[in-house]
Amino acid sequence: MALNVLALRKDFPILERETRAGVRVTYLDSTATSQKPLAVIEAMNDFYRQSNANIHRGVHTLAEEATALYEDARGKIAKFINAASARQIIYTRNTTESINLVAYSWARANLKAGDLVVLTEMEHHSNLVPWHMLAAERGIELDFIPVTMDGLLDLDAYRALLKRTPKLVAFTQMSNVLGTVNPAAEIIRMAHEAGAVTLVDAAQSVPHLKVDVQELDADFLAFSAHKMCGPTGIGALYGKAELLESMPPFLGGGDMIKEVHLRSFRPNTLPHKFEAGTPAIAEAVGFGAAVDYLSAIGMDNIAAHEHEITEYALERLEEIPGVKVFGPPARHKGGVAAFTLEGVHPHDVAQILDKDGIAIRAGHHCAQPLHEKFGIQSTSRASFYLYNTKAEVDLLVNGIYKVKEVFA
Ligand code: 7TS
Asked: Hey, which of 121, 127, 366, 370 would you mutate to test ligand 1's pocket, going by the most ligand atoms within 8 Å of its Cβ?
């Protein structure tokens, strides 16, 4: 079913906004964060107007209501990624915190000096730096699945890395720069055959593709609400129950305990063991509303729409003399187009486009090693979501021609 994009755009009040007089925003930066539909804004607003109280610690009506809303949202998120149980969804602040939770809790309990962790060359800094920190602290070794010049993972090189029996394979399901959608199920199957645990950075996949954690057989999977029409300040870590149960707590404090004495404590059961302190309650409610919103539209419909826009965008961008788009062809790719324009700094491209209300990002997009691999410092990046149209791609392309005129 084709999306009725013009109708659903009305769900996003910010898309009506003018960034300067008479210039309506063309938002092409959803890879950084998505816009939020009214359903999410109103769910959070209603929570504060109607049900606000702290959770898990009151018997009064508001506390019970707030707890139920917080836990209902967890159930929705579990169902959205087909987790077997809501206990396997840990609320965190974002993907970054989810990955750090695995690095601090699972990895510190299970990895020792000399153990190998396999990452890829296309990782976001949030799936690199926690492992650098552990390497410095513990002496674990890191190695990387190379990225080919076409922007794909080199699976033969991966096969060779697996012979060194890594303990963990942690990789992004979709690159935030190249847009590459990696063959996650295959990567996980190969890791398991070699005896490794897997961690999927799903920050860019869960918002855009149907992700089924049981079908993938992922051990851990991390994502953020803010990239999937939900609020900032909340994300999730999915984990296999036996792994999460065997792991020590991450942060200590209220809510994550069963009992506390002056000299000891007993941790709580899942998922509370990993949720210390008052969490982001209204944000959890907003996260649940975002999942409802995306589910009602259908992830397959969203993915098909984005594919159509991306195919069109790549075709139009590649027509522009001096433009080089990075990453694989559209069939291997989500809605991301990172590019360079010959003779013009990526920041200048973004700044000039902003004058026409076109919002794209420029920089290394927190994937500096990937840019180094391609011998560049930065790119301009347009990214697409369910609310973007081909007309917006045309605005982008016309804008780039204007940039060329400025620098001619
Ligand atoms: N992993 C990937 C693949 C990402 O794209 C991002 C954010 C993260 C992890 C971290 O997510 P966070 O919610 O914890 O910040 N990516 C981007 C981006 O491309 N531009 O801004 C943020």
From this structure: 366
**Distance between CA atoms of 292 and 80, rounded to whole angstroms?**
9
Give distance in angstroms: CA of 296 to centre of ligand 1.
Answer: 25
Q: How far apart are the first and last CA of the chain?
A: 44
Domain ranges of the chain: 5-30+298-406, 41-296
Residue to probe by mutation, ligand 1, list 124, 211, 364, most atoms within 8 Å of CB: 124
Residue 328 and residue 310 in contact, taking contact as beta carbons nearer than 8 Å: no
The CA-atom distances, in angstroms, between 105 and each of 151, 203, 246, 297, 359 are 32, 20, 10, 36, 38
- What are 209's strand-pairing partners? none
Q: What angle do CA 266, 242, 71 make, to 5 degrees?
A: 70
CB hemisphere CA count around 49 (13 angstroms): 6
For the CA of 226, the closest atom of ligand 1 is 13
Minimum-distance ligand 1 atom for the alpha carbon of 383: 19
262 exposure class (CB count in 10 Å sphere: 0-12, 13-18, 19+):
exposed
- Amino acid identity at 397: V
- Our answer on whether the CB atom of 98 is closer than 6 Å to any ligand 1 atom is no
**Amino acid identity, position 304:** A
The packing angle between helices 281-297 and 38-46, to 10°, is 150
Nearest to 165 by CA among 132, 194, 197, 130: 194
- Check pocket membership of 67 for ligand 1, CB cut-off 6 A: no
CB 62 within 8 A of CB 51: yes
Q: Quick one: CATH architecture of 5-30+298-406?
A: Alpha-Beta Complex (3.90)
**What residue ranges of the chain have pLDDT lower than 50?**
none
CATH architecture of the domain 41-296 equals 3-Layer(aba) Sandwich (3.40)
Q: Is the CB of 39 under 6 A from ligand 1?
A: no
The two structure tokens encoding residue 390: 């081909």
* Ligand 1 pocket residue status of 95, Cβ below 6 Å: yes
208 touches ligand 1 (CB under 6 Å): no
Active-site residues, by number, are 366
Q: Is it true that 5-30+298-406 and 41-296 share their CATH fold?
A: no
Centre of ligand 1 to C-alpha 203, Å, is 6
pLDDT at position 1: 67
